[in-house]
Amino acid sequence: MELVTTRADSLFNDLRxxxxxxxxxxxxxxxxxxxxxxxxxxxxxxxxxxxxxxxxGLLERKANVGYRVISLSTAQLLEIFQVREALExxxxxxxxxxxxxxxxQRLRQLLxxxxxxxxxxxGEAYMQQEGDLDFHYQIVLGSHNQQLIRMLTxxxxxxxxxxxxxFGMASPRAKxxxxxxxxxxxxxxxxxGELAEILMRRHIAASRKNVEQRIAVNATxxxxx
Amino acid sequence: MELVTTRADSLFNDLRxxxxxxxxxxxxxxxxxxxxxxxxxxxxxxxxxxxxxxxxGLLERKANVGYRVISLSTAQLLEIFQVREALExxxxxxxxxxxxxxxxQRLRQLLxxxxxxxxxxxGEAYMQQEGDLDFHYQIVLGSHNQQLIRMLTxxxxxxxxxxxxxFGMASPRAKxxxxxxxxxxxxxxxxxGELAEILMRRHIAASRKNVEQRIAVNATxxxxx
DNA sequence: AGCCATTATTTTGTCGACAATTTTAATATT
DNA sequence: AATATTAAAATTGTCGACAAAATAATGGCT
Lengths: 225, 225
Hints:
The structure is a homodimer. Chain A is mainly alpha-helical. Chain A is built from nine helices and two strands; from the N terminus they run αααββαααααα. In chain A, α5 (101-120) runs antiparallel to α8 (174-189) and α8 (174-189) packs antiparallel against α9 (193-224).
């Protein structure tokens, strides 16, 4: 993607990964002197990286207090699903108009790979999750809408991955998801943007409801404990 | 909104306004030494502000080269309309479920003020434009979805305002827009999220088509010149 | 003259230090 | 013992300076 050149760049990438993967837990207050010492860079360089992490929504900043890793509640996870439903629905509609035959071809291949992979390594829910995001990623790119692409791939998807890593919501809907993906591709290939959007919105809404249910169950069992 | 405290904060706010209003033209390369001297701050403070401006999408940065004001083409303006259609459509749907009676009341008052204002100062297209954005702004807040609110009010709306200032696309649809706004409020008040979303999407799509047409006309007249 | 290589100059990236603010600790008071 | 006040420590905000990189200028060559 973007070539890493400066110290701040690689720091940005490294911290981003550590935050997404939860090695730096949510809501952690970041100490600039401590982090700078750990990475053996000056505070200027560190702060450059930190402000960029704030820009993509992974950090919050309070004047005269400092940076803190965001802390996502389950309520906010559901909010993210609603945003995704809107944005990816539109992306799908646009993809039906704008994807090249070549892009559609590659999308089909991607789905086949995921399918065969999931048959082999059943239970590897993690792989399925990343694959799922790949699929969505390709459609978003296929929208050819730079604003849309930026919002999703450079901001929202980091939050999504952060959730998946830290809450480990492995979907039990894998099989159904594949079938839904298939139908979405077909609609895109037909150039039927309206249908493609509807199918994508349903697909994401179904995931949201699934998570919603799981949260409700969790809350219940925790009450009993 | 957020209280200004640090030098970098006020710099951020001032530069943001100057960029949005076009006092610093699109695509301008920013010289850090020059800007720092002009504002009488150190480069550290300036860079803090600049990186935040990058975060909200008003500046672009290239490693070892520096910051540059973004440059929006008319094609990208249309892209923004598509994103708004998706996001504000969803915001409207959510607003129908989540707005309090108080918020709906204030929204109605807002529309009345705009209507009487526009009757008095006809031709003041600029006022209408800002009023229009206010209306949309209130609905977005009414969604009570923090992610959605952030994306629109802290990022996309700056681009929208930047366009309006610099391209001065005064809408000739003012009268129709008022009527559309009225219907949207009614749907929200009825708690009919599905209808509210459809109406908002049509409303924004109509604006987009309007701009699209104008661009086509402009292109034609320029060919003739 | 036009183009390429080399040198100067400017600009960005990075560093360490001090000032202003916040947070923590200690002390006094009820 | 708990709270309020004050003092100490640590943290963030800001500054100026140097190093590395990119841009501009100079000079040599065909």
